[in-house]
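BUG: 3D viewer hangs when loading the predicted structure for this chain

Environment: internal workstation, default settings.
Expected: structure renders.
Actual: progress bar stalls at 90%.

Input used:
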Amino acid sequence: QVQLVESGGGLVQPGGSLRLSCAASGNIFSLSTMAWYRQAPGNQRELVAVITSGGSIRYGDRVKGRFTISRDNAKNTVYLQMNSLQPEDTAVYSCSLSWVGTFWGQGTQVTVSS
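Structure tokens produced before the viewer hung:
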């Protein structure tokens, strides 16, 4: 199986930046599609960004132009660079790995507040 561990969350002021990381164990990372999702209390889970094994990228409308997803196959890690953060970005951010099935990390809290 696959284990995913997110890190990099925390408290940031509006307009600030954070970089999230998701490290995967296993030997299927390079074949997989990686994605970041987020969910705030009272809200449904929202797709933030997706990057395929071939490097194709798609962003959710609410983060397009502010967030950047990338992957380092040598490190089995996917990143989410978040800039121009606003309070509405506050959520638990989780990464997923999809190949023949889908695996999830535990999530990391991002709080944007002044």
